[in-house]
Design brief:
Strands 1-4-3-2-5-6 form a six-stranded parallel β-sheet, sandwiched between helices. Strands 7-8-9 form a three-stranded antiparallel β-sheet. It is about 40% helix and about 20% strand. Strand 8 (about 255-265) and strand 9 (about 270-280) form a beta hairpin. By secondary structure, the chain is α/β, with parallel strands linked by helices. The chain has two domains: about 1-175, 3-Layer(aba) Sandwich (Rossmann fold), CATH 3.40.50; about 185-275, Pantoate--beta-alanine Ligase, Chain: A,domain 2 (2-Layer Sandwich), CATH 3.30.1300.10. It contains nine helices and nine strands. The protein binds pantoate. Pantoate binds near residues 28, 29, 30, 58 and 61.
Amino acid sequence: MIVLRSPEKTFRKCVKEKRKGRIVGLVPTMGALHEGHISLIRKCGKICDFLVVSIFVNPTQFGPSEDFKSYPRDFKRDRKICEENGVDLVFYPTAENVYPPGFETFVNLEKLPSHLCGLRRPGHFRGVATVVLKLFNIIQPDVAVFGKKDYQQFRIIKKMVRDLNIPVRIIGAETVRTHKGLAVSSRNWYLSEDEIGRAAFLRKALLLGKKLLLKGESPARAKQEMRKMLFRTGGKIDYISVCDRFTLDEIKRFEKECLIALAVKIGKARLIDNIEVRRKL
Ligand code: PAF
């Protein structure tokens, strides 16, 4: 496994692999690798010949009062995990490598960021879309894998790729959960044992919402019952949304399919989770 910090060297290496006819796969991460990332790495490894993981805590996707400084960083540990999971190249740039002095070009989507997390985290998806496009330009992947836990991010990247004709296939991977149903996330590291126990109500609320919609209850009623369930986390509910799974627009009536998404602040962690709901015909 090689580790490169320079975007130019990384570009040259990846292009060389592509010229040999190899399929280049990318899993973009901010490090602090956990079971969720490992499942993305393994999934990507199965469909490519040259597996790249990027590790970069991207400053432009954090708001001024967010956890950029305290975001967990442990490169030695991340490197070992990559090595053990068949990664060929780790791209580990410095902030100056990604954002040289005078940087001023950003990618903005018009509508998709104005829902769910985008409403609470202004500028977040502008930072995500910008860094992901830069990673695509540097690594030139044929395929890239993103977790569906960050569902809005997954939709935004898919849209950006389509809108800007970027030649990369975006694959969504299912969320990895603990045995209690809690979605695995770097931000779970901020939770105490007691908070982890209470965070299990996020998944329970999603399953309840799904059950109610499939029974014919309205999205409004489903959200009401989910809110009651989420009170049991003892946290602060940020949002509960029943929406179209492509546009992320709220829906008033459930017909065939939708997404239920939520965000709750428990202690120091802001946790997000979601579930796709489909009526079997
Ligand atoms: O999901 C993440 O870890 C980040 O948002 C990403 C895609 C690596 C961009 O910084």
